[in-house]
């Protein structure tokens, strides 16, 4: 608890001073101490500050260091959250912030095949826009992104369509709202590109187990997110419409307790604290 209090104090000072050094001290002190149980607290704190413009640069720089010094086994569970946050904030990033974001993703992708199935948790980078990048910086940014996608491509070629669907279902069931939103968009694109694949899962007298998992995940996310998450609900309902009517007698939908989801995307300070404590 003493370490926890010290870290919380450093986090508060960092928010007041906008100093990257306090962020660095916070992340490296926890990592070097081997207290991996505090990683969720660090992630929640960093993501909470990422949405604040005046703290964004310092937050990304600290995130870059945190990712570079955190052991892979401790980093893996947060890969989806990190990449989804970067992709979501991309249109609002300055050129310098974009370069730091690319560096963060490079630190993750340097592990290559060691990432295993976590490589499929990395958010889709193909739809990132360059419209807000000034012409002099366009080429370096595009080159950096191409290098990322070139490194990621061979790590994600082994999954079948069903395995991709299973991975997206897992991410939709995430506790992170930012991961849920990004995963729903990817799921929607997957359904639109290959509608016949979903129909094949629903053929016969009994549906494929994935059909029940899809319905459960989509309905569950609308129930877990509050009324402020209209975008999440709209995408989820759109996906349900694409899937089509499902006969409950022909698929199995298990009943489990739902997880906590922070639908305010860390913009509410009190809810961010409660979510960090929940982790």
From TrEMBL:
InterPro entries: ARM-type_fold, UME. This is UME domain-containing protein. SUPFAM superfamilies: ARM repeat (SSF48371). Coiled coil: none annotated. Residues 29-90 form the UME domain. GO terms for molecular function: protein serine/threonine kinase activity. It comes from Puccinia coronata f. sp. avenae. It comes from the Eukaryota. It holds the Pfam family UME.
